Amino acid sequence: MMTGVRVPEEYVQDGQIILNVAPRAVGNLEMSNEAVTFHARFGGRPHSVIVPIYAVQAIYARENGAGTMFEPEEGYDEIEESEETQHLSSAESLKPIEAAPSDEDPGPDDEPPRPKGRPSLRVVK
């Protein structure tokens, strides 16, 4: 994995990970010229995610597939080569963050509970 990237390693496939950064999927989303950072749940466990801009390969809309791919930045090769020569310690790997105490009121990003029983329609005039 590239230096500075912090994602759950168990979800990385072939050195890549696809992240859904929709407002309903992440919290505390910040996008700057240096990095994309946010909190998200992976397999029900909360994680803090950091992706430096040089590691972003593409951005696209899930709804229609429209988007763009990026060429590797100059200096990226140097970062990758220096990473190969250094052994990263296990302390640098991603750790789960503590879940904040949840309120009884569902937030605007939470899905409403599924109704129980048989579905029904009502005519409103």
Automatic annotation (TrEMBL):
<dbReference type="InterPro" id="IPR036760">
    <property type="entry name" value="SspB-like_sf"/>
</dbReference>
<dbReference type="GO" id="GO:0005829">
    <property type="term" value="C:cytosol"/>
</dbReference>
<protein>
    <submittedName>
        <fullName>Stringent starvation protein B</fullName>
    </submittedName>
</protein>
<dbReference type="GO" id="GO:0045732">
    <property type="term" value="P:positive regulation of protein catabolic process"/>
</dbReference>
<feature type="region of interest" description="Disordered">
    <location>
        <begin position="69"/>
        <end position="125"/>
    </location>
</feature>
<dbReference type="Pfam" id="PF04386">
    <property type="entry name" value="SspB"/>
</dbReference>
<dbReference type="GO" id="GO:0005840">
    <property type="term" value="C:ribosome"/>
</dbReference>
<feature type="compositionally biased region" description="Acidic residues">
    <location>
        <begin position="71"/>
        <end position="83"/>
    </location>
</feature>
<dbReference type="InterPro" id="IPR007481">
    <property type="entry name" value="SspB"/>
</dbReference>
<feature type="compositionally biased region" description="Basic residues">
    <location>
        <begin position="115"/>
        <end position="125"/>
    </location>
</feature>
<feature type="compositionally biased region" description="Acidic residues">
    <location>
        <begin position="101"/>
        <end position="110"/>
    </location>
</feature>
